[in-house]
Write a structure and sequence with these properties.
The chain has three helices and nine strands. The protein is of the alpha+beta class. About 10% of the residues have low confidence.
Length: 173
């Protein structure tokens, strides 16, 4: 399991793993109790890969925050996610010294620590993500600029029309 497969659904507690795609959305499985449920495509969801922590310079991806927590505490958190707001701020200053105290609320810190507890035994945060050859960008030697990979379409080309044959029908006698 990778961090890109894990989502958060606002309004529901916990984290979910995307199991399959349905006609109208997704099938997700809760990481806490392994129950599956359908999620509508119109419902808001957030992938953990897309979430970042506000800092004074540049936003820090959630995976990097999890790495810092793992480096600082080993495998077990040294602070309770339900602790006092001052204790949580001191803990985050120790982990990410330049986090933005005005934009990162205590509820955000509690959520990050709770998510870390959920994921700590299931995901290795220190592992590097490997990108496949299809995701890489081709670079032309002439210009040196990245050129996106051209994907083939499965429709007939513009100058060719789909061949339509006549259908012969038999009369029933």
């Amino acid at each position: 399991m990778e961090l890109k497969d894990i989502i958060s659904i606002p309004g529901t507690g916990g984290l979910y793993k995307v199991v399959a795609q349905s006609k109208n959305g997704f099938i997700v499985e809760s990481l806490t109790d392994n129950k599956r449920m359908p999620i509508s495509a119109s419902q808001r969801i957030s992938s953990l890969v897309d979430i970042a922590l506000f800092t004074k310079n540049e936003d820090m991806p959630l995976k990097d925050v999890f790495k810092k927590i793992q480096e600082t505490d080993g495998g077990k958190l040294s602070v309770d996610p339900k602790a006092d707001q001052k204790i949580l701020k001191d803990y985050f200053k120790k982990i990410v010294p330049d986090f933005d105290e005005e934009r990162v609320y205590a509820s955000d810190m509690k959520k990050i620590l709770t998510w870390y507890e959920l994921l700590s035994g299931k995901i290795d945060f220190t592992a590097k993500e490997e990108s496949s050859d299809e995701d890489k960008i081709n670079i032309t030697q002439e210009s040196g600029r990245p050129v996106p990979k051209v994907h083939e379409s499965h429709s007939p080309k513009a100058d060719q029309h789909a061949k339509v044959g006549q259908v012969k029908l038999r009369k029933k006698v």
